[in-house]
Specification:
about 325 residues; 4-stranded mixed beta sheet; binds zinc ion; DUF4344 domain-containing metallopeptidase
C-alpha cells in the first residue's frame, strides 16, 4: 500500500525536513554520499526557513523582477560582459492560450489514488494558474497526468502537450518513503519534486512555443528556468522546493545507473543537477543558504561563482520572457 496521505492543505509549514532524512539503515556508498548531501541541504533549509506559504498562494505569485537582484558581493571581481540582447525585440503578442490541467483515468488502483489525491489537493491547479497569469501563450498546452508505462515526464511538441506520468509520481513517493525519516512526509516531497519537474517540462514548452533560444544546453536551460521561477515567484517556499527536487535527483542517481531511467536520458547526471540547483539557490541568497557550502553539497570553489552564475541566468531568462509576460507581472 502506498499512501498515508495527509489531506489538504498540502505543503506549508516546516521546510522539507523531508530532506533531513536519511537513509538510516542504508549501507550503499552512493547512498551515504547522498545522505551527507541531503542532511546538509536540510540544515541549510532549516537555517533559511521562514514561514512557508501554502501551495494556493505559491502558485499565484510568480514574478520576474524587471531587474533581478544583483549578485551580493562576489568573492572576486566578476568579469562583466554585457548580456546579449536581440537586435530586434520580438513583438509582444496577444495571449491566445493557457496551460490546461487534466487527469486521465487509469486502470491501475495506485494511479487512481494519485489522481484523486492530486485533484483534491489542487496543488497543481495553483501552479498552473500562476503560470497562466504570468506568461502569454500562442495556444493551449494540455498538462496531463496519465499512465505512461514508465516513470517519466515529457513535453510533446507535435501535440503541444505536457505529460506527467503517474508512474513518476509513484516512483518519487517510493524514493522519498524509503529514504525519509519516519516523521517526515514523503508525499509532500513527492509533490514538490513533481512541481519542479512540471516547471522543467513547461520550460521545454515555452522554448518550443515562443521560439526562445535556449540559454545553453536545453536540458540545463529548463532546469535553470524551473529554479528561477521557483526562486523568483515571491513566496518563501520556492528555493526549498528547488532543493527538494535536487535531493530527488541526487537520490535517484545514487540508486540507478545513469541512463537507466528514461527521465534521465537527455539530462545531466543527477549529481550534476543537484550541484547546479544548489549553486543557483545559493547564488540568489548566499547569506540565507551559506550552509549549503560543503564538499558534498556545494564545494566552496563552485560556490564562489554561484552569485554571478545565478545573476546571469536570471537576467537571461527575464529578458527572454519579457516580451511574453502578461500585464501586471
Ligand atoms: Zn527535459
Amino acid at each position: 500500500m502506498f499512501l498515508s496521505f495527509r489531506r489538504m492543505p498540502l505543503p506549508g509549514g516546516g521546510l522539507f525536513l523531508v530532506v533531513l532524512i536519511l537513509l538510516a539503515g542504508c549501507t550503499a556508498q552512493g547512498l551515504q554520499k547522498a545522505s551527507q548531501a541531503l542532511e546538509k541541504t536540510a540544515d541549510a533549509l532549516d537555517q533559511a526557513a521562514e514561514p512557508v506559504a501554502g501551495p494556493d498562494s505559491a502558485g499565484k505569485m510568480i514574478r520576474v523582477p524587471a531587474t533581478p537582484n544583483p549578485p551580493p558581493t562576489p568573492v572576486e571581481p566578476v568579469e562583466t560582459k554585457p548580456l546579449e540582447t536581440p537586435a530586434v525585440e520580438p513583438p509582444r503578442f496577444e495571449d491566445q492560450g493557457d496551460f490546461k490541467l487534466g487527469y486521465a483515468e487509469s486502470s491501475d488502483p495506485t494511479a487512481n489514488e494519485w489522481m484523486v489525491y492530486l485533484k483534491e489537493s489542487r496543488h497543481f491547479e495553483g501552479i498552473v494558474d500562476g503560470l497562466n497569469a504570468f506568461v502569454a501563450l500562442p495556444r493551449d498546452v494540455p498538462v496531463v497526468f496519465q499512465d505512461c508505462g514508465e516513470a517519466n515526464a515529457f513535453y510533446l511538441p507535435e501535440e503541444t502537450t505536457l505529460v506527467l506520468c503517474y508512474e513518476l509520481v509513484s516512483e518519487l513517493q517510493a524514493l522519498f518513503a524509503e529514504n525519509t525519516a519516519e516523521e517526515e512526509d514523503p508525499t509532500k516531497s513527492t509533490l514538490f519534486a513533481t512541481e519542479f519537474i512540471f516547471y522543467h517540462e513547461a520550460g521545454h514548452a515555452l522554448i518550443h512555443l515562443l521560439d526562445l533560444p535556449a540559454t545553453g544546453r536545453e536540458e540545463d536551460s529548463v532546469d535553470q528556468l524551473a529554479t528561477f521561477l521557483l526562486i523568483e515567484r515571491g513566496d518563501e517556499a520556492g528555493p526549498g522546493i528547488a532543493l527538494n527536487a535536487a535531493a530527488a535527483f541526487m537520490l535517484w542517481s545514487s540508486l540507478e545507473e545513469p541512463g537507466e531511467l528514461a527521465f534521465w536520458d537527455e539530462h545531466a547526471l543527477g549529481q550534476q543537477r543537484f550541484y547546479n540547483i544548489a549553486c543557483w539557490v545559493y547564488g540568489r541568497n548566499p547569506e540565507g543558504f551559506a550552509n549549503l557550502i560543503d564538499d558534498e553539497v556545494l564545494p566552496a570553489e563552485r560556490a564562489e561563482s554561484c552569485p554571478d552564475e545565478y545573476y546571469k541566468l536570471s537576467m537571461a531568462w527575464a529578458r527572454l520572457l519579457e516580451p511574453y509576460l502578461k500585464e501586471g507581472t
